[in-house]
Specification:
binds 6-O-phosphono-beta-D-fructofuranose
């Protein structure tokens, strides 16, 4: 069994980056433990973007902050739960994360996840102005019947899955590849009322007898495409969210990197997600992510 730590040294991942990746894997263990045991109550507060915040979001965010503060190479954090960047030291690494994506699914016991993008920001840097292509690594943890994460590094080949076993993350899949196949996770179906083009696209998927696999959590939904090796996840814009709902820095860029590294695609309808420059921490984007041909089809239908 290859532990994550051994994997990083076998792959020759640069020491500081490896330490950040291990820090995040430790956070996933603590969040996993909290999800299994914590009360699922309301914290009575809203997050920076006016969404209802469950206690577990707050806890998960703090657990990541605490873990990152132990690692001196990390200087800056950006969390979906924080209104601003948080300087925690002088290190040049920046970690952007969504501590508990899909947290409203915890009380009904569906899978949820943590999403992470890691950058080298240099001294006094910021996430603003960065592109997903500049991520040194990205990770997506899923807390479901099992606790797993997917990871890819910019300078390394491939996407890898690790699974928590007896307190350690061990390698369980070293060939995560996305090809073609008929599976769809159609987000924001409300948009079909406003967009005849999206309606036609969804109708195409149904007419062609695609398998519907949609949980309502972006991390498990996109992870599923990565592990089954096929399919499409869509979240188009509509009147309530003219730029889409999902966030570029915290959700779309890291998951887009994993998808591209596995051979798939991630686009906003016309542009690669990873080429979009971050103008504001809370920036949203439409997203079509999955098999290359499926992403191309989305763009053709919605053009
Ligand atoms: O906020 C993120 C998220 O919960 C994703 O995990 C999920 O894909 C999406 O929102 C679901 O959005 P909606 O509630 O509009 O269906």
């Amino acid at each position: 069994m290859t532990t994550f730590k051994n994997f990083l040294s076998e792959k020759g991942v640069q020491e500081d980056l490896a330490s950040v990746l291990l820090t995040m894997a430790e956070s996933f263990k603590s969040i996993n433990a909290q999800i299994r045991t914590a009360e699922v109550g309301k914290a009575g507060s809203s997050n920076a973007y006016g969404e209802e915040q469950l206690a577990l979001d707050v806890l998960s965010d703090r657990l990541i902050q605490d873990e990152c503060k132990k690692n001196s190479v990390i200087g800056l954090l950006a969390s979906e739960e924080l209104p601003e960047e948080m300087k925690i030291g002088d290190g040049s690494f920046g970690v952007a994360y969504d501590p508990l994506d899909g947290s409203s699914l915890v009380d009904v016991n569906l899978a949820v996840g943590t999403i992470v993008g890691i950058y080298d920001l240099g001294e006094g840097g910021s996430f603003i102005g960065k592109k997903g292509d500049e991520q040194l690594a990205s990770m997506a943890a899923v807390y479901g019947p099992r606790t797993t994460f997917l990871v890819a590094t910019r300078d390394g080949e491939g996407v890898y899955e690790f699974t928590l076993k007896d307190g350690d993350f061990v390698l369980t899949n070293d060939s995560v590849k996305v090809e073609e196949g008929k599976m769809f996770a159609p987000g924001n179906l409300r948009a079909v009322n406003e967009s005849p083009k999206y309606f036609e696209l969804v109708k195409y998927w149904m007419d062609e007898q695609y398998t519907l696999r949609y949980s309502g959590g972006m991390v498990p939904d996109v992870t599923q495409i990565l592990l089954k090796g096929k399919g499409i996840f869509s979240y188009p814009p509509y009147s309530k969210y003219p730029q889409g709902k999902l966030r570029l820095l915290f959700e779309c860029a890291p998951l887009g990197m994993l998808m591209e590294k596995a051979g798939g695609a991630a686009r906003d309808g016309s542009v690669r997600i990873l080429e979009k420059s971050l103008e504001a921490l809370e920036q949203r984007t439409p997203i079509f992510v999955g098999s290359k041909d499926e992403v191309r089809r989305c763009e053709e239908y919605l053009a």
